[in-house]
Every structure is written in C-alpha cells, then in structure tokens.
Amino acid sequence: MFRDGNPTVVVEPSDVEESGVDLRLSEEQRAVRETFAALFRKESTPQRVRAAESSGLDMDLWQRYAQTEALGIGVPSECGGGDGGLLELALVAQEAGRRLAPIPVAETAAAARLLARLEEKELLGPVLTGSSIVSLATRSGPVSEQLLVDGAIADAVVALEGDSLLYVRRLAGAPTSPRSNFGGLALARWHASGERLSLAQGDRAGALFASALDNGWTFLSRNRLYDFGTIVFLCLVMFALLNSAKRLEYYMLVLLGCGAYVAEHFIRNPGNIFEQIGHEHFERAAIARGAGNFGNSNFLALLMVLSILMALALLGFHHKWWQRIGLLTLISGCGYTFFRANSRGASMGLAVGLICMWFMSKSKVWSSIMVLVLVIIVAIAAPTAYWMRLGTILTYQEDASATKRLQLWHQAIELTHENPVLGIGPDNFIDYATNSQHDAYLQVASEAGVPALMLYIAWLVSGLWSALKARRLSSPDPGDTRYLWAVSNGIFCCLVAIVIQGFTTGFAFREFVYGYVVFAFIAQRLAQELTSEPVAVPEFSPLETIDDEVTFPELFH
After folding, report:
1. Which structural domains are found in the chain, ordered by start?
2. Residue 168 in contact with residue 156, Cβ under 8 Å?
3. 38 neighbors 95 (Cβ within 8 angstroms)
4. What sign does the dihedral 320-323-329-332 (CA atoms) show?
5. How far apart are CA 235 and CA 176, in angstroms?
6. Integer Cα distance of 110 and 118 in angstroms
7. For the residues 166-194, what does the mean pLDDT come to?
8. pTM score, whole prediction
9. Which residues lie across from 178 on neighbouring strands?
10. DSSP string across 1-52
C-alpha cells in the first residue's frame, strides 16, 4: 500500500492480537519519521542535491539537521543525547536516503555513539551541536593510508591504528585529495593530520572500533548462517537415509576413511606451525593453512581423536584378522598425527573418552590389558615435545597462548553480558578481538546469545542420552544389535571428547558437532526398531474352541 507516494506497511489489529507481537512503530518513532521526512522533502530538493555534488555537503541543510538535535538521537541522555536506538537512527537514515540528502548521517551517528560509549563528553559536545563534523574510518590502519568517507569535509576522524583507538584532528590548511565518484560523496585522503588523542588501547580498542562499524550481524554472520543451514539439511538427509544398521555401518566406514585420508595426507605432506611457550619452541602439525576444514592444529587433533575412539569401539565388533589390522593401522596413523598436532584440549578429550570407553567395555580385564598396552606404547612413541607441551599447563603464566586465551574468555563474557539475547552475530567475535574465543560455549553465548547457548548444551546432552539409550537397548552378544552396541559406545565417547575439548576450542558451529549427535539419534532409533518387534496376537473365536463332534448336551455333563 502507498501513502503520499511512500510505501507503508499496514498491520491489521487482528494480526497483532493473534501473533502476540506488535511490529508497528510507536508514536515517538512515527513522529521521528514524519519530522525528518518533512525536513528532507523541503531542504534536500533535486536542485540542492546537484549543487552539492562537488563538495559532498550542503552546509545549510547540515545546520538545519543539527538544529533538530538529530545528531544526538542515538546518544544516551547522560551524554547529552536523546536516548534513541538503532531503529530511530535507521528511520532518519531511511528518510535521508530517500531524498539523497548531501550530509553525513550514518558516519557521524556511528562516531557520536562511539564517543558516548567512551564517555568523551568534551569531544562529543561539538559533534552534537554540529559545529564539528567527526567521521569514522571504515577499516583499521593509519589515517594517511585510507580513503576517508568524509575526508573532504570532516574536522576529525576516529580510527584504529595498531592497538590504539585514536581521535585524529584534521590539520588546518592541510591539502586533501578528493576522489570524484558517482555518489557525490566527500571521499578524500588526508596527506597530513593534526592532533592525535588516544581513546583506548589494546583489545578494548579493537572491540570498540568493531562495535562502531558493525552494530549487529554482518556478512560473516550471513555466511555462517548459510553454512549452518547446509549442516542442518545434511543432518536431516542422514537421519532419513541411514535407516538400517548396515547403512550406518557403511557410513561409519566412510568417516573412518576420511580420518585415514587426512592422516595419510599429513604423513606424506607434513606441515607445521611454530609456537613459543616461555623459552621453549614447539612444532605443531597443520595442513591446508588458510583453507580446509581440519587444517588448524586443534581441529586436526580433534578429527584424529574421533577416528581413534570410533576405531577402538569397532575393534570389539570386527573379528576378522584383516579388519582388525586395518583398524589398528588407522589408529596408529591417527595417533602419530595426533601427537604431532600437540593439542592440549584434544589430549584431555581423548583421555576422558578412553576412560568412558573402559567403563563401558564388556570385559574389564581385557580392556585393562588394552589400556595398559596403549599407555606403554604412548609413553614410548609419543615425542618429547608432546609431553613438554602438556607440562606447560602447570606453568600457564609463562604461556602467551594460555594467558591470551584467558583474555579472550574474559572478553567473550563481557560481550555476552552486553548482548545476552542475540549476541553480536556468528563469526563477528574476530571483529572485537585478535583471535577466536577458544571456547565453544563462550562462542555460542557471545555470538548467538544465552538462549542459543542453552539450546547448544541441550543438543549435546540429548546426543549423549540417545547414545546411552541405544547402548542399553542393544547387546554385545552375537545378534542383530551387536553392531549398534559397539557403535553407540564409540558415538558416546566421541561426544564426550567433543564436550571436553569444547572448553578450549571454538567449534560450536562446525559440522561434526551436529553430525555425531544425529548419529546418536539414528543409533537409538535403530535399536528401538530392532528390540521392539510387535508380538503377533492370534484372533480368538469362542466357536473355534468347541470340537465339532461334541454336542451341546454333552457340554453340561
């Protein structure tokens, strides 16, 4: 529907009552839209827009815009603003865009909100009155190397250089290099800058700058949501297609083959990254750096852990000599790659997974012998660097990796506190810090919100419960459910390893987390189908119990 030539969304009262959600603008918000629609309709005519193309600024319109106190709409009242939010700013920007208003609306609003968050009231005052135009750099780096959005008209710019958030004033009389463009924007480079004031340092500076640029979910979030949608689709396909124990067995063999391929690829084409902890230097296995799902050392180690645990669980099912030799070869190759990856989080996951496997084994004596042999082999075969890196857990104060991880956790907790419902958007944490959270649970909480964290934990718990139920319904004795008993043990131990390593590695949005939970659901479904066969109830007829040769009188004798 259109009103005065403008598109208007009409919401019927009945729709609001049925849905329980009122999406209509409030009276104040409608007043904001109507006020600035009238302002830009009058002051931003086509003639004045064309006249301002060369400079990118209509000073008369800018002064009228400042007189409406629009520059303080998104600023808290304690800093002299109007206590508005992003919706109110979006309404103003929408009306400005509708009339191609030649003034800096979005960038000055973002800079004002950032200065207000820093409580820089002295710098914020001239911005709110319009006497000083302050813009925001669109990327980190030296101001002199950037093409500034309002470089031709701005008096100052807020920029991130290194680990410092700076308020950089324009040098009076310094020449600029305006960049002609079809949009008539005031694009320009500064060849020299004046006074530079430090606003924040370190990780906080990066977080503040990123929050000023990206207020909400970005293209990174969009891409992650696309990936996650693909994962959900594949999980649904797996649940539909793996409708028999034989199909599940084939699929698990494919997964083990993937682990074998990655291990073989590393053994034939070893790659390493170097890490310094204290005075020690460590080499860590890494493949496909910059690409690939398991190129990262921690992800590579996790894949090896999952392959080892599943292969150990299936050793009890496969009795043919060539099958066991194949599984033991796989375990050896994955174990070598695991040790070279040098992941402390994966080591804890593997240790807890092996303990769970021992408790779930049918024969504790045989399992104890296997564990003892495994411990001896690990003690002999594991490289010295692996044990040395595990030892750094006790001296984490000297470990820059560990202390940095603690800082990242603290930062993730702060972002969760500031954005508890929807978070900052998937994959946006890298905009606030120099690295990822290194914690799957804080990753979900900070990027998707606390409700999403509760769902993530419930998802993992449901997978563990389903694996245990599948194990209880099946039997290790020869029969139809023997494979399900073995694979449910492996799935449970793999999920335990994922839960444990999740405290040190951020993989909450990765496919294997959801894939293994779906495997647990499939195992439970198959176990229920095989152990709850319907019992045939014969049809009963009273006449069938009476012999044809017996007469009714004889029945009473």
Report:
1. 25-213 (1.10.540.10), 219-531 (no CATH)
2. yes
3. no
4. negative
5. 56
6. 13
7. 77
8. 0.64
9. 188
10. -EETTEE-----HHHHHHHS---SPPHHHHHHHHHHHHHHHHHS-HHHHHHT
